[in-house]
Amino acid sequence: MKGLISAPVIGVIWMLTVLTSCNSKSEEPNFEIGGTSQILLINTTEDSLDYRIRDNALWPEKAYYLVATIGPGESILQERKAQGRNDFYFSIEDEEHNLYSTPGAIDTLTIHAAESGKIELEFAGSLQSVNEFLYAKTHYFGTSKSDRKGRSECMLDNTKSFEEVFAFNDSLTQVNKNYLKSNIKGLPDWYVKFENKRLDYVNAWYKMNAVFYRKMTLRSDEKVPAEFVKFYSENVELQCPSMLGNRDYMNFLYQYITFKIDFNQTEVKTPNRNISRKGQFENRIKMIETELDGLVKEAYLASELAQCIDRKVLYDVAWLDKIQNPEFRSFLDGVESYYDHH
């Protein structure tokens, strides 16, 4: 990596700083099904740099990556889909980082060349303190996936009991909560509360996944601890409108609905192999309507229907009539072109 240059982007930096100073995210962001955010990438080095950005939109969910190159002294403004509060994957020259995004956020990411030859990132804008926190956290743990590292491996280790798997997940969750508590200075109150809740949903999702894997894939006769049923039914808030649009909360809801369909408390039901795909989804809709209500029900059902439309497996258009929220219904009417227009 070559040294710093006198970048011709100072005017752009100043202009965006003015914009972002008027767009502080100290107030709590809201869920917006068609929301977007902006991030200005500024390369102050003398090298062309390869970078990747993974999108975090969930209506419909896509494995969507932007792979591009930013030239020396170049600045690139990226508009991204941002329906809820999420960290998202950003890689620069194969160095992985988590950045944060909320609907309406405007941020800058300035890429510097350090004297050590490595790349350093500098943040400004709506979510500066959150991005600085995530950047420091990645360096502290040596990974951008500290909230997940080891969970899948532990789940797949069939030498471990359910109690051991659950204890590992609880421990990892607490480690991340402790780091948050120790580095709370400067973070918005809404982020601290939100992140603590998000970590609980990650924990619950992996625990349910462990039960699925052991019971449905391995056909294990190991008894699921009663504490687990109590955990996901009492310790995690099922109806949480403030979490809508967050990837981990939405994954939790998906797993919860599936869990309620396939399990009766801790006993496995024999899967009906003869039921049609339409019948399977009708069962999901019934369970969604039974377990969820209000805005969470409408939003989650809209997310599942968006998947059906996107994958061209909407077996019954009458299902759309179940969505009463006009904003969600309007979004579903145009979901097939959503990725083409953003």
Descriptors:
10 strands; globular; Immunoglobulin-like
Structure overview:
With 342 residues, the protein is an alpha+beta fold. It has 10 helices and 10 strands. The chain folds into 3 domains: 132 residues, Immunoglobulin-like, CATH 2.60.40; 110 residues; 71 residues, no CATH class. Strand 5 and strand 6 form a beta hairpin. Helix 4 runs antiparallel to helix 5, helix 5 runs parallel beside helix 7 and helix 7 crosses helix 8. It is globular. The N terminus is likely disordered.
Secondary-structure map with pairings?
Layout: H1 10-21, E1 36-43, E2 49-54, E3 65-70, E4 75-81, E5 86-92, E6 95-101, E7 106-113, E8 119-125, H2 128-141, H3 151-156, H4 162-182, H5 189-217, H6 226-235, H7 247-262, E9 263-264, E10 267-268, H8 277-291, H9 294-310, H10 326-333
Parallel strand pairs: 1-7
Antiparallel strand pairs: 1-4, 2-3, 2-5, 5-6, 7-8, 9-10
Helix pairs in contact: 4-5, 5-7, 7-8
